[in-house]
Amino acid sequence: MTTDPLELFADWFAQARETEINDSNAVALATADASGRPSVRMVLLKGFDERGFVFYTNRESRKAAELAANPQAALLFHWKSLRRQVRIEGPVSLASDAESDAYFASRSRDSQLGAWASDQSRPLDERAAFEQRYEAMRRRFDGQPVPRPPHWGGYRVAPDRIEFWQDRQHRLHERRLFERVEGGWREGLLYP
Predict the structure, then answer these.
(1) What is the dihedral of CA 118, 119, 120, 126, to 10 degrees?
(2) Percentage of the chain exceeding pLDDT 90
(3) How would residue 3 be classed by pLDDT, with cut points 50, 70 and 90?
(4) What is the pLDDT of residue 94?
(5) Which of 17, 127, 168, 171 is catalytic?
(6) pTM to 2 decimals?
(7) Degrees (nearest 5) of the Cα angle 47, 49, 53?
(8) Residue 148, C-beta contacts closer than 8 angstroms, at least 6 positions apart
């Protein structure tokens, strides 16, 4: 059994990629504004390594405003098919422009155009207005690559706590907690 939480996460994530029917990389992202009011939504994990867990979004969205005011977040993966959860907490920083450019270039053209057309989290009078903006972006970039919008990019959650939860019969679940300490990780168990 590994004592490296990132190695354990990689193993569990690989298993989830094989068993989850849809979006095994879907993760609940919890943020809080400057006053402490919480908010949670689903995002897609697009990468992870020893530096942290990366997702991408509009940097003018509600989540981005909350992260600017309070750069701490929690992530929750729930893989129902495996009866497992992983909770991750830590400070958040921006992914580099190079990382954001590379990921944006890998997206479908329609998703790229949608990033330009959407004023994410802002009020929308009617769906037709968004569809018109999308069509305007499609015409604007016709016949050329779609560059990454300046307001769109990645965020990295650098874990300082990672908890692995495994379902067990009779609610006698197993919970392993890893906390970052000087020079590595401290591991312990939690009561279910």
Answers:
(1) -80
(2) 95
(3) confident
(4) 98
(5) 171
(6) 0.94
(7) 50
(8) 100, 101, 104, 105, 112, 115
| Residue 29 C-alpha from the chain's centroid | 6
Where exactly are the structural domains of the chain?
Answer: 5-105+149-190
Q: Which helix (H) or strand (E) holds 23?
A: none
CATH code assigned to 5-105+149-190: 2.30.110.10
Q: φ and ψ at 24, to 5 degrees?
A: -65, -15
Within 10 angstroms of residue 11's Cβ, the number of other Cβ atoms is 11
171 is catalytic: yes
pLDDT in tens, 115-133: 999 999 999 999 999 999 9
Tell me how far apart the alpha carbons of residues 188 and 15 are, in angstroms, rounded to a whole number: 23
pLDDT number for residue 1: 60
Copy the structure tokens of residue 153: 């990019």
Q: Please, what is the average pLDDT of the chain?
A: 96
Q: And the tokens for 148?
A: 């990454």
Q: Is 99 exposed, middle or buried (0-12, 13-18, 19+ CB in 10 A)?
A: middle
Burial class (CB in 10 A: 0-12, 13-18, 19+), 24: buried
